[in-house]
Amino acid sequence: MSQDTSSSTATVPAGPAGQEAQHGDAFENLLHETRAFPPSPEFAANAVVTAEEYREADADRPAFWAKQARELLTWSRDFDQALDWSNPPFAKWFVGGEVNAAYNALDRHVEAGRGDRVAIHFEGEPGDTRSYTYAELTEEVKKAANAFESLGVAKGDRVAVYLPMIPEAVITLLACARIGAVHSVVFGGFSADALRSRIDDAEAKLVVTADGTYRRGKPSALKPAVDEALSKAGHTVQNVVVVKRNGQDVDWTEGRDHWWADTVDAASNEHTAVGHDSEHPLFILYTSGTTGKPKGILHTTGGYLTQTAYTHKAVFDLHPDTDVYWCTADVGWVTGHSYVTYAPLINGATQVMYEGTPDSPHQGRWWEIVEKYKVSILYTAPTAIRTFMKWGREIPDKYDLSSLRVLGSVGEPINPEAWMWYREVIGGGKAPIVDTWWQTETGAQMIAPLPGVTAAKPGSAQVPLPGIAVDVVDEMGESVPNGHGGFLVIREPWPAMLRGIWGDPERFKDTYWSRFETMYFAGDGAKKDEDGDVWLLGRVDDVMNVSGHRLSTTEIESALVSHPAVAEAAVVGAADETTGQAVVAFVILRGDAVDTGEDIVTELRNHVGKEIGPIAKPKNILVVPELPKTRSGKIMRRLLKDVAEGRDPGDATTLSDPTIMQQIAASLRK
Ligand code: 6R9
Questions:
Q1: Does the keyword Ligase apply (predicted)?
Q2: How many CA atoms lie within 13 A of 244 on its CB side?
Q3: Mutate to test the pocket of ligand 1, among 330, 524, 535, 635 (most ligand atoms within 8 A of CB)
C-alpha cells in the first residue's frame, strides 16, 4: 500500500492507552499555553457570523451547506440534492446543479451595479501599479476565454499555467473556469522537469506563461523553462500564450507561441458564460507527498466554490463594502487559488495582489502596501511573520497599520511567540488572529476560530468550522479524550473536498481513506486540549522519537522561537545510535541578537530544557543564515535531516531560493 502522508514508522504523538500513555506524559507537559483573547464586544456585535451557525450546521450538515450554496452563489440550474455519499469516498455535492465560477466571480457583480468597485489593486515588484474594477476584470476574462477557445481549448481540456503573481494569473484561471477548461497551475519556482511531468500527467493542451517576473529587484525568467519542458517530443501541448511582463529576450517557436497582447488583448470582449455541472472539474493542483510522484489533486465546481466563499466570509468577517483584503499567497499554492482567485471575487471583495518579495526594494514593503491601500484583512504564513520578527519591529512600526482589523495565518503551525508578535506589532494589540488549518486536498479552510465568536488561543487553530466534522483519533481510530494527542481525521464529507487524484482513483483511496476506513486521514498530528480545542503538531512524519519519548518538532521550534535571540527555528530528528533519534535544531538569530557562539547554543539548550523538559533539549543546535523553504513557506525538513545526518542533501530545486543549502553548508564549515 502506498502511503504518501505517513511512513510506516509514523507514530502517534501521545496515545491514550498502555505504553502510549507512558510516553504521553512527557508530551502532555509540552503545551502549556494558557493565554486566550476573546473578541471585543464591538467586534462581536458587528461580526457577519455568530455562534448560531455551529448549531445550525450540527443539526443538519448537508442542509446547512445547501443553504450556503444558494445564498453565496448564483446557480444557472438549482441542484436537486445537497450530498450524494452513496459511493464513498467519492462524494457528489449539489447534485444536478449548474453553476459558472467566472460568472459568479465577475458578471453578476457588474449586473448588480457593482461594476465600478475595485476587484484587484495590483502592485508590481518594481513599483508599477494597476487596478481593475469588477467591470474591467470581467472584460479581460471574457477576452481571455475567447482567445483560449480560438486556440482550440474546449470544455474539459487541461491548461497548464506557469505564471508569476500578476493579474493575468487570475484572469487565466477564471477564463479557464468560464469555458469549463481545467487549469493546472505549476509554481513559477519549479523546474522545467517538474513542469513537464505535470504537463504530461494532465495532458495539457495549452500553456500560459510569461517572459519572466521580478524577484528581489532582478528579472527572473519563466519562458525558458517552458521551452525546455517542451523541447523533447511526445507532449500534448499545441499552443503557448506568453504574457510580456519583464521584457526580457525570449526564444520563440513560430506557430506554437503567441503573445498575450496579440491573442487575448485582440479578442472580443463579448462572451456568454454557461453553467457547468456542479461536479465538473475546476482544477488540478499538484502536491507532493513524502514519496512517489506528485499527486494531481482534483477539485470540482459547486462544492468548492461554496466552501471557499463561506469560509472567506465567516473566518475573515468579510464586509465586502468596506474591507480591503490582502492574501499574500502565490497563485501556485492552493491558498492562491481558493483565497485569491475564487473566494474574494465570488464574495465581491476588493483585494490587493503583490508580485514580489517582502524585502524589495526595502524590508518595509508589505507595510507600505498595507498603509497605501488601507488593508483591513491580511492573510499570510507563519514563515513570513517569523521573518519580520527577525528584521525587527522598528520596520513595521514606521507605518500606519491601523486599518488592519483581522489577521490570518496558514501553512504551518504558528508558534505562540510569532502569534503574539503578529497580534501586538502588526495588529496593534487588538486585531483578532485566525489561524486556519486546511490542505490542498481539503480545498478550503477546515479548522479556524471565528473572529467574532472564539476566544483565540495563541498557537491553536482550535475549532472545526461550522459544517465540518474534525476529530483526533488514536492508532485504532478511536476518538481521543481531551488532553490527548493522535491523528487528525475528518469524519464527514465536506463540500470542497478533493474528488480524487487525477487519473489514479486507487491512489486516492490508499492515501487518504485506508488508514482509517471511513474517515479522511489528513497526515497531521494533533492534540485536543482540556477545552477540546485542536492544536496542530505538524505532519505525523515530523514527530520524533527520542529514547522512546515522542516529541513534536513544532513544539521544540516554538520553545526556541520564544527565546528573545531566535527569529526562526527548524527541528529535525536525526538518526542516533543510542537514542534512536536525536533532536537537531537549526536556528536563525534575530537581527539585533549577537551570535556568541557556544554561549548562545548552551543558553538555547537550557531554554528548551526549561520550557519543555530536559528530554527535549536539542543534542545539536546549528546557527544558520537561512532555512530551506518551499515557495509556500514550508520548511523542508527533509533537506535539514540530510545535513543533520551527514548526507549530501539531494534535489533542492523546489526551494524558493535553491542556493540556501549551500549557504547552510558554508555556515556550518565556518
Ligand atoms: C493550505 C495549505 C497542508 C499542510 C497541512 C499541515 C500544514 C496548513 C496549517 C498547517 C498547522 C495551520 N498546515 N495550515 N499546520 N496549522 N494553520 O497549507 O495547504 O500546502 O497542501 O499544506 O500544511 O501540515 O497538512 P498545503
A1: yes
A2: 13
A3: 524
- The rounded Å distance from CA 410 to ligand 1 centre is 6
216: left (phi over 0), alpha (psi -120 to 50) or beta: left
Residue 316: what pLDDT? Answer: 98
Residue in the block written with cell 481513506: 513
Residue 189 burial by Cβ neighbours in a 10 Å radius (0-12, 13-18, 19+): buried
Q: How far is the CA of 386 from the centre of ligand 1 (A)?
A: 17
Can you tell me the ipTM of this complex?
A: 1.00
b/e 529-562 (16+ beta carbons within 10 angstroms → b): beeebbbbbbbbbbbbebeebbbbbbbbbbbbbb
Cβ of 528: how many Cβ atoms within 10 Å? 19
Residue 225 CA to ligand 1 center (angstroms) comes to 28
From 190, 327, 438, mutation site for ligand 1 pocket: most ligand atoms within 8 A of C-beta: 438
Place of cell 534535489: 651
Which residue, by CA, sits nearest to atom 3 of ligand 1? 439
> What is the CB < 6 Å shell around ligand 1?
287, 334-335, 410-413, 435-440, 461, 522-524, 536, 539, 632
Assign 3-state DSSP to the chain and report helix, strand, coil percentages, each to 5.
35, 25, 45
- Atom index in ligand 1 nearest the CA of residue 632 equals 20
Query: Tens of pLDDT along 157-185?
Result: 999 999 999 999 999 999 999 999 999 99
Helix (H) / strand (E) element for 665: namely helix 660-669
Residue 129 has, within 13 A of its CA and on its CB side, a CA count of 9
What is the reported pTM? 0.86
In tens, the pLDDT along 591-629 reads 777 666 678 999 999 999 888 777 889 999 999 988 988
Query: Could you tell me where the beta strands, DSSP code E, fall in 124-229?
Result: 129-133, 158-162, 182-185, 206-210, 212-215, 218-221
The residue nearest atom 8 of ligand 1, judged by CA position, is 411
Lowest mean pLDDT among 7-16, 61-70, 543-552, 618-627: 7-16
| Residue 63: partners with Cβ closer than 8 Å, 6 or more residues away | 82
Q: Whose CA is nearest to atom 16 of ligand 1?
A: 413
Confidence of residue 566 (pLDDT cuts 50, 70, 90): very high
d(CA 445, ligand 1 centre) in Å:
10
Give the ligand 1 atom nearest the CA of 522.
Answer: 25
Distance 631 CA to ligand 1 centre (A): 13
Do the beta carbons of residue 203 and residue 158 sit within 8 Å?
A: yes
Give residue-wise pLDDT tens across range 294-314. Answer: 789 999 999 999 999 999 999
> Which residue's CA is the nearest one to ligand 1's atom 15?
412
* pLDDT reading at 22 higher than 50: no
pLDDT digits (tens, 9 = 90+) for 222-233: 999 999 999 999
Nearest residue (by CA) to ligand 1, atom 22, is 439
Centroid of ligand 1 to alpha carbon of 423 (angstroms): 21
Q: Are 586 and 640 in contact (CB under 8 A)?
A: yes
Of 601, 648, 611, 651, the closest CA to residue 630 belongs to 651
Residue ranges with strand state E in 267-339: 276-277, 281-287, 295-300, 324-327
Q: How far is the CA of 263 from the centre of ligand 1 (A)?
A: 38
Straight-line distance from the first to the last Cα atom of the chain, in angstroms, rounded to the nearest whole number? 44
308, 340, 439, best to mutate for ligand 1 pocket (most atoms within 8 Å of CB): 439
